[in-house]
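Repro:
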Amino acid sequence: MTIQILSPQLANQIAAGEVVERPASVVKELLENSLDAGATNIEIEIERGGSQLIRIRDNGSGIAKQELALALSRHATSKVSTLDDLEQIMSLGFRGEALASISSVSRLTLTSKTQTQDQAWSALAEGRDMQVELKPAAHPVGSCVEVADLFFNTPARRRFLRTDKTEYAHIDEVVRRVALSRFDVQIKLSHNGVLQRHYRIANNEHGQHRRIAAICSKNFIDNSVTINSDYDSIKLTGWLGLPLTARNQADIQYCYINGRMMRDKLINHAIRQAYMDKIPSDLYPAYVLYIEIDPKQVDVNVHPAKHEVRFHQARLVHDFVFQTLQKSLAQSIEALAFESITPNAENMQSSELELRDDESNNQTLTDSPADTQNNYTSVNALDSSTEQPTGAGRLTEHSNDFGFHANSQNQTQPKPEYSVQSNNPIYQQLSDAGKKLFPGQTHKTQIQHEINQRPYAENTHSQHNLAEQIRQYHNLLKPEVADIKVEPVYSAEHTTSSALENWQLIMPVAKTFLLLSKAEQLYLVKTNELFSAGLLAKLALNFKQGQLISQPLLLPVAIKLESVQQDLLESKIIALNHLGIQTQIHKKNTLMIQKVPAVLRELDIAKIIAAWLFNYKPADNEKTGFPQLAAETLSWAIAAEQTLELEKIRPIFNEWKQFDPTSLQQWLVKHSKIIDLTELIGNWK
């Protein structure tokens, strides 16, 4: 067979094999042309799944009369003209093959009118000899493309079309993807003369949520987290579904790169990795994500259908997407877990009303054998203080005779992290938290005797009083006289360690304070002060021992500096380096964080360092040695960035007790306030 040049018709039909896979492919190409033309209103009419008719009308800029015939030619486009344009493509279409390929396998009519023309014109091409016929038409500013009898001249391709219902479903999915990419465009979709979809313009958040709910379901938008993150020339925004939105099929996975619909393997891998260990391997995450990147950093001309791209810095993009999504998921899951274990305020109020009603009705409850057993059932509020981030000490619906409020029976109790064995009956009647507070108790205390002898209703009024709870803690810590043992006399050198052994963290109070006990006395300290002081002591120790080691971040963090933060920047950077935080000034007003100590790796570094730069004022004596003021400011910034529940403070407290007990003892004596219970105990009848 001799070598010959293909005819234009055959060449276009071969190209159509890549561009026009099914009717949905035609809709995609024509919609992209409408968006490139600046359309804000697009109407799509489909008949018989697109095999009989596809009509797309828009209000874009239109095509001039003298360019209509040229628009149906191969490699004809207004979107690129030089190699530089090809290297930074911002338009959705750029190859100039769509209209020519579609017209080669259908009967295509292109009608258009520009703003400067007095009349619209139509171009007709039927795919045989590719001759284009022009004639005047009636049409407003914009364009209308009609594609009739798709694959009429290629019967083999037409036989591979599915049912009208299936082909329309593919078209509907294409329209969904386009609707999610452009909230500023109104789109109508009709099938066989019936309006199926109407996506109105959504210029505000409420409108966007409404469109997303219509496309991805209300469950998705109600259980998703908003993403808004940027690094250097990359920006990631959108909505990320929480694990409970995971689905059996990948039908709610929408990703756009510079407004272009994508199914890129690199991005999909980063997203899947972010959900690792958060959803089962047989489920698919749900998301709507938008990646904006410098067009010069991405090549969109690597796939015939433009479904994939190639990044110049693939690893950077992958890690940026992975870290952003992973961190957002972790924070959201933690927040949801926090909310789920925090008592509802309405339930608390209703509980109080029920208690008051009981008092007003003068109902007297007597102790049955079962009630007597419950008198020693321990204090679930203490369990809450140990296991729950916040809400400890809040009132729940049920209460026991100690005056502490227990969780409802259908609520699963957390497992204790300790194990104490005892055969004592009193000890066995305590809860896990009670056993932790009173290990080895064998006799009832005086307060327990008094509570057991009182009716339940007499105690209900004071059960909501924080001071009453503190008083009861104090008395529960006092054993009976018969149980008091003579303590050995310690020498002066054991005073500090002995005193520290007596300090115990009990529970948070009102989200601001911590309740501690020492011997038979209770103390209050401010939560953030204890945390920041312990962290400061740890930083100083690591600096002294040369263990303040910097660890490189997988992805550097960029901080845009304000004028206040730029003040004395050079001195501030020196202090940061002393604290193990390595930085680099990037461009004019951007500070890059490259390495940080281990204590900062899991935190919001950008927020912490930005606050530190704003508040820290360098001192001359901190240019060498340990920067005390800088470390103190940093510890306060770290404390302010976190939710300081008990389980975050306990490790800091225990470490401080181990490596520098003297300074901890001095700090506690100076910063704690003793709770005077004398008056409460004296008035207690």
